[in-house]
Amino acid sequence: MDQDKQSNQLNELTANEILLVALQLFTRKGYFKTALTDIAAALELSDTRKVYQHFNDKQSMAMQLYDTILDSLSVSIDEIRRKNEKPSEQLRGIVDLLFRLTDEAPAVMRFLCLLKHDEFLPEIMPLHQTAAFVKINKVIHAGIKAGEIRPLDVNLISAQFFGVIFGTLRAVLNAELDKKADFYLSQTWIAAWNVVAKKSSSPSI
Fold first, then answer.
1. What is the pTM of this model?
2. The domain 59-196 belongs to what CATH superfamily?
């Protein structure tokens, strides 16, 4: 009976289920402290055979997670840009999304914000070169052209603005701040916007 149950688990287990468990373990234990046997055990498998049917190693899992998270973020940014006309409103929508993900999908944001990807994925495209962050820089460039954002180097503006945003999110994820991210959203937005905005431009709260 137990063998039949194990066989059914092997047949039904999907790559996405493996990735979800890997995400939790990578962000809780750390990438290097997570073994394939840990992932199999968390899936209630007696060995790693089913894991190997989907992935060659944990690096391929991490690569898939990286690509999937950044692709999903890119799609969400496209939607935010379609729904909002002004660059400042688009930026606010992106910030709202990041804060919401921190509360609703903290493992995703820990993977994105806390892990040092180049230590275990040395050949990946750096975050600032991915489609999602290139689109964010386009929003910033549009904000400069529209006179909402100070006319400085786009990469510098992005670093200044998101330094404030991600600083708050990391503090929440590390429990250095004791409330949910949403509690700090308005204050963090105002602080970040004031760093990059022209004096005549008012933030949307």
1. 0.89
2. Tetracycline Repressor, domain 2 (1.10.357.10)
